[in-house]
Amino acid sequence: MMTIKIAIAGSSGRMGRMLIEAVQAADDVILSVALDRAGSEAVGQDACAHIGKNCGVLITDQLSALQNADILIDFTRPEGTLEHLIVCQQYGVKMIIGTTGFDEAGRAALEAASQKIAIVSAYNMSIGVNLVFKLLEIAAGALSHGYDAEIVEMHHKHKVDAPSGTAIAMGQAIAKAWDQSLNEIAVWSREGITGPREDGKIGFATLRGGDVIGDHTVVFAGEGERIEITHKASNRTIYAQGSLRAARFLQHKATGLYDMQEVLGLK
Ligand SMILES: NC(=O)C1=CN([C@@H]2O[C@H](COP(=O)(O)OP(=O)(O)OC[C@H]3O[C@@H](n4cnc5c(N)ncnc54)[C@H](OP(=O)(O)O)[C@@H]3O)[C@@H](O)[C@H]2O)C=CC1
Ligand SMILES: O=C(O)C1=N[C@H](C(=O)O)C[C@H](O)C1
């Protein structure tokens, strides 16, 4: 069994810490690089300090350290991920990207880079949410007439993007089943005298507060009944474990852009 050398970006972030812990606990991966951005107080500290361990990998802001990794796992911000993407192409380092909030140009950059390196990019790395995407395909296919789709998500108060990447991906799954483009039929928020709801639209509602890790509900509301499909995360370890599955999957890929459905064999 080959040990995969893992680099982690945003090492002192909520997901970065969780990923370091997961890498430490697994026996087929090893932490070789821990990155944080220049100016972060974490730079120079041992990457495992938050779990009361000394793993001998110091957090660095030097992206050239990436040449010591096989795969970078990146849960940061779009601008950070896009910077890392350039360096990963330079050194032939594969990427697992959990960062949300990319615009069209950002997504195009990932697509272009995937001709040089293998990338898994997914707005949600958990098995549960990826299974929900499948359920949504079935539900939306069966409920394409006479049902209104609404997506409600709630996250912790530190989250900076809205709606969540997962909510957008859920909308995309429904729109695809309806043979539509999400941008054409999404109602991203509502306020004031909105008029009656139009048929065929997908509505989004965003809640932020406290320490909620990630709740998503899709409602299909019809005359006389309502179907609700909900996923609630209670621990970030689901995203870290999904990322490690993606790392094992990427071991056998040289180039290409993949999602978690492909990693989990759900496509
Ligand atoms: N796909 C999935 O399954 C999941 C995706 N996410 C996504 O992951 C991302 C991170 O979430 P979370 O860990 O909660 O966020 P945090 O804010 O806790 O952590 C972000 C980390 O990235 C660093 N960072 C911020 N900007 C940059 C930059 N420009 N360059 C390099 N590093 C940077 C931060 O450093 P500093 O503190 O110095 O700013 C911090 O260490 C979000 O986009 C979130 O939506 C989250 C959970 C699951
Ligand atoms: O920022 C978060 O925390 C999360 N972000 C992802 C998203 O935007 O969908 C995934 C998960 O919901 C947690």
UniProtKB/TrEMBL annotation:
Q: In which pathway does it act?
A: Amino-acid biosynthesis; L-lysine biosynthesis via DAP pathway; (S)-tetrahydrodipicolinate from L-aspartate: step 4/4
Tell me the GO molecular function terms: 4-hydroxy-tetrahydrodipicolinate reductase
**Active site residues per record:** H155, K159
Locate the residues binding (S)-2,3,4,5-tetrahydrodipicolinate.
H156, G165, T166
Q: What is its main location?
A: cytoplasm
Question: What is the uppermost EC class here?
Answer: oxidoreductase
- UniProt EC number: 1.17.1.8
What is this protein's name? Answer: 4-hydroxy-tetrahydrodipicolinate reductase
Localization (cell): Cytoplasm
Catalysed reaction(s) here are:
(S)-2,3,4,5-tetrahydrodipicolinate + NADP(+) + H2O = (2S,4S)-4-hydroxy-2,3,4,5-tetrahydrodipicolinate + NADPH + H(+); (S)-2,3,4,5-tetrahydrodipicolinate + NAD(+) + H2O = (2S,4S)-4-hydroxy-2,3,4,5-tetrahydrodipicolinate + NADH + H(+)
- Entry function: Catalyzes the conversion of 4-hydroxy-tetrahydrodipicolinate (HTPA) to tetrahydrodipicolinate.
What the entry lists under SUPFAM superfamilies is as follows: Glyceraldehyde-3-phosphate dehydrogenase-like, C-terminal domain, NAD(P)-binding Rossmann-fold domains
PROSITE patterns per UniProt = DAPB
Residues annotated as binding NAD(+): G10, S11, S12, G13, R14, M15, D36, G98, T99, T100, A122, Y123, N124, M125
Protein family (similarity comment): Belongs to the DapB family.
Task: Tell me what organism the protein belongs to.
Answer: Deefgea salmonis
In terms of Pfam families, this protein maps to: DapB_C, DapB_N
Residues annotated as domain Dihydrodipicolinate reductase N-terminal: 4-125
UniProt keyword list = Amino-acid biosynthesis, Cytoplasm, Diaminopimelate biosynthesis, Lysine biosynthesis, NAD, NADP, Oxidoreductase
Residue ranges annotated for the Dihydrodipicolinate reductase C-terminal domain, each copy included: 128-264
Name the residues that bind NADP(+).
Answer: R37
| Quaternary structure annotation from Swiss-Prot or TrEMBL | Homotetramer.
